[in-house]
Write a structure and sequence with these properties.
two-stranded antiparallel sheet; 2 strands; single chain; 51% helix; 278 residues; mainly alpha; globular; 13 helices
Length: 278
């Protein structure tokens, strides 16, 4: 079932109110926790946990976790708002899956977005698609309060609202925080949740069974070439860096030719940017 964008906006509005009503960090965190728990309890039956809708759900909750998307937003908004300033925003419901597809199309117009994202959008929509047209369709039906959150999603910054990452991920699925530490990609983590063994586990198991289930799940996990991995508890080599920047390099030994992927520290696919070192 498509998840309505307005429900995410409702959550973010509540979190923003929490931040504005208190100057105490502890008090804000306490209110945020109650807000998150109440929101998940209210909408748990329609929260997608499989398929493209799931990727859209988590990508919109945590836009900063999509380093593969880079938006040339200022110029797009300038063109879009010139057309829509005088038009009404009343109309149909926008779903997170539709919004997520629009974000993909917008990001695909930037050469700094990952090559895999741009290829995926081209395969789905063709090379003639214009990101401005997709944004225009969304902005035309959004009311101003929803437009605010649309802009903040594109900016990957919900400030002053704060989405408690660990709590929200744990409420979504008890394994999600660990899966993202293992494979630092929302689409990849959703793919792991689709593993037959993991799929049959309860979303929120009894506390005394969590460690055992995590142990069972860990036996099903294998790193994938081409998807950035988190270091986890492994021993790492650390050295002083005087210039340049760190990167993570994947070499798929099962492929010939273009089998190298390079990830920047943020997790963005920077293979094209670093063409000189491969």
């Amino acid at each position: 079932m498509p998840f309505p964008f307005r429900l995410l906006c409702d959550l973010l509005e509540r979190l923003e109110r929490n931040a504005r009503r208190s100057s105490s960090t502890d008090r804000i965190q306490e209110r945020d926790t109650l807000t998150i728990l109440a929101w998940f309890n209210e909408h748990d039956t329609i929260i997608p946990r499989r398929g493209p809708e799931t990727v859209a759900f988590l990508s919109c909750l945590f836009p900063e976790r999509r380093p593969d998307r880079v938006f040339d937003f200022a110029s797009s908004v300038e063109r879009v708002m010139a057309i829509t300033d005088s038009e009404s925003g009343a109309g149909r419901e926008i779903t997170l899956e539709e919004l997520d597809d629009t974000l993909d199309q917008t990001a695909a117009s930037s050469s700094f977005s990952s090559a895999s994202l741009r290829e995926r959008v081209t395969t789905k929509h063709g090379r003639s698609i214009r990101a401005d047209n997709s944004l225009l369709k969304v902005f035309r039906v959004l009311q101003s309060s929803k437009t605010k959150w649309m802009i903040r999603i594109i900016s990957k910054n919900y400030s002053p609202a704060r989405v408690p990452e660990t709590l929200v991920m744990s409420k979504f699925h008890f394994l999600l925080p660990d899966l993202l530490r293992f494979q630092n990609s929302i689409p990849a983590a959703i793919g792991l949740l689709g593993n037959p063994t993991i799929r049959h586990m309860p979303i929120q198991p009894a506390v005394d069974t969590c460690d055992e289930l995590k142990e069972v799940a860990s036996r099903e996990l294998e790193p994938q070439a081409g998807i950035m991995t988190a270091p986890g508890p492994r021993r790492m080599s650390v050295e002083r860096k005087y210039d340049g920047e760190y990167c993570q390099i994947h070499i798929d030994l099962n492929k010939s030719g273009a089998a190298i992927k390079i990830f920047s520290k943020s997790g963005r696919d920077s293979t094209s940017d670093r063409i000189g070192i491969h």
